[in-house]
Design goal:
Elements: H1 2-11, E1 17-18, H2 23-30, E2 36-37, H3 41-46, E3 53-56, H4 62-74, E4 80-83, H5 89-101, E5 105-112, H6 114-120, E6 123-126, H7 130-143, E7 146-147, E8 150-151, E9 153-155, H8 161-190, H9 195-205, H10 213-222, H11 233-236, H12 246-257, H13 262-274, H14 278-286, H15 297-326, H16 332-338, H17 349-359, H18 370-392, H19 398-411, H20 418-428, E10 432-433, E11 440-441
Parallel strand pairs: 1-2, 3-4, 4-5, 6-9
Antiparallel strand pairs: 5-6, 7-8, 10-11
The structure holds 6-phosphogluconic acid.
């Protein structure tokens, strides 16, 4: 991704001095005559005039830590480090504060779109001081993806504002990917479709206003054969899913900020469960469930779209709560606009979401925006059918079903939780609020 970003910068006539620790990577980078490749960090520094801007494209965690430590020794006040990785936002806060004490700027830059995005135009979510953003803004806007002439790059507040928005992007990505995986599993196990048939269904799911990059990718995957065996690619891939951390960090943040993100957490736990050893015993002892019922194909597409909307809604709530707590930019229209192109979440739907938040910045939940509420209503019958079908056929659909439970919990005027309050008071004298007078009260349990 580092090389791809450097080439993208070079396309815009921005001079880049590149250093990579790996000699083979340096030689590959040097094949592009527009890039100046330095043979050492010192040689790179010798070529940079102050104030220097160093963009780090290394893995989050220890590599960012050691690179930042090394650079700190070399940089002078007024210089800037931009961390373009998926760093943990609390690390970004700490690094920003540490470097600020040395007169250095530290910018946490969320970069989405993978290698191809980095090369052709990523979505960029920038944190750091506003002044630091001002210094690099023109570069970011030059290399970012564009929609109607607007760059998909913006500033989200000091220190970790950008990395937090990127983390929320990834958590939504986890949710949408899991929803797609569940929907394809229902096609296969529930409806017994062949791969070409499944590919057609995926094309229908992503038609018109439901178009998204992840659904295009799904179609591509369903049509691919494994080079070695000739079998459908998806059949030779292990079902153990990986994760690098952003999804889990988002759930931790949701818990500590008091944001309900059950659907996003189901997506994270689905990956955890996919690799857990106890599955083996459950497969052996519990066996396959019986199959029953029918499902209209359009129903499944509706369920997938509705679950996608709920994933977005939970991710946006997280961004807002984080911004309120940490003094970042809680402008949700801004996040939706940046995600319209270049990133993994890019989807037609984000234009509607951006307009909804532009019209009503204080919208308590995106699901209540009139246009989005009517999309959800239209999807509801099919969504319920799908969840019922998955449950009655023993097909795990944690995201499709938890998103529906979330919606039902949100829209019920009087929830089930009065019972919880009564029980808490009954066994622990925790007290409860009443509907008819203020204050905390106790029932007489004698
Ligand atoms: C992106 C992606 C990218 C990557 C993450 C997710 O926006 O370009 O989100 O950042 O896919 O690293 O990784 P995991 O699925 O491994 O957590």
């Amino acid at each position: 991704m580092g090389r791809a970003l450097a080439q993208n910068l070079a396309d815009r006539k921005i001079t880049v001095i590149v250093f990579d620790r790996d000699a083979a990577a340096r030689s590959r980078t040097a094949e592009d005559p527009r890039l100046v490749v330095a043979e050492s960090v010192d040689a790179m520094f010798a070529k940079l005039a102050p104030p220097r801007t160093v963009l780090l494209m290394v893995n989050a965690g220890a590599p960012v830590e050691s690179a930042t430590g090394e650079l700190r020794m070399l940089l002078s006040p007024g210089d800037m480090i931009v961390d373009g990785g998926n760093s943990f936002w609390r690390d970004t806060q700490r690094r920003s504060a540490d470097l600020a004490r040395a007169g250095l700027d530290f910018v946490g830059l969320g970069v989405s779109g993978g290698e191809e995005g980095a090369r052709r135009g990523p979505a960029l979510m920038c944190g750091g001081t506003e002044a630091a953003y001002g210094r690099i803004r023109a570069w970011l806007e030059a290399i970012a993806a564009r929609v109607d002439g607007h760059a998909c790059a913006d500033w989200f507040g000091p220190d970790a504002g950008g990395h937090f928005v990127k983390m929320a992007h990834n958590a939504i990505e986890y949710g949408v990917m899991q929803a797609i995986a569940e929907a394809t599993q229902i096609l296969k196990l529930g409806l017994g479709l062949s791969f070409p048939e499944m590919q057609k269904e995926a094309a229908a799911w992503g038609a018109a206003e439901r178009a998204s990059y992840l659904l295009e990718l799904t179609q591509d995957i369903l049509g691919r054969a494994d080079r070695e065996t000739g079998r459908p690619l998806i059949e030779v891939i292990s079902d153990r899913a990986g994760q690098k951390g952003t999804g889990g960090w988002a759930i931790e943040a949701a818990l500590s900020l008091g944001v309900a993100a059950p659907t996003l957490s189901e997506a994270v736990f689905a990956r955890t469960l996919s690799g857990s050893p106890e599955r083996k015993d459950a497969v052996a002892r519990l066996g396959a469930p019986a199959r029953r019922g029918v499902l209209e194909r359009g129903d499944l597409g509706d369920a997938l779209f509705a679950a996608t909307l709920v994933c977005y809604a939970q991710g946006f709530q997280l961004i807002r709560a984080g911004a309120v707590q940490h003094g970042w930019v809680g402008d949700l229209a801004r996040a939706a606009r940046v995600w319209r192109a270049g990133c993994i979440l890019r989807a037609r739907l984000l234009t509607d979401v951006a307009s909804a938040y532009e019209l009503a910045p204080d919208l308590t939940t995106m699901l209540a925006a009139p246009g989005i509420a009517s999309m959800l209503k239209a999807c509801e019958p099919g969504w319920r059918q799908t969840v019922a079908f998955a449950a009655s056929n023993g097909i795990a659909a944690p995201v499709l079903s938890s998103s529906l439970a979330y919606l039902d919990a949100m829209r019920t005027p009087r929830g089930a939780t009065a019972m919880i309050q009564a029980m808490r008071d009954g066994f622990g004298a925790h007290g409860f609020e009443r509907i008819d007078k203020p204050g905390m009260h106790h029932a007489d349990w004698s």
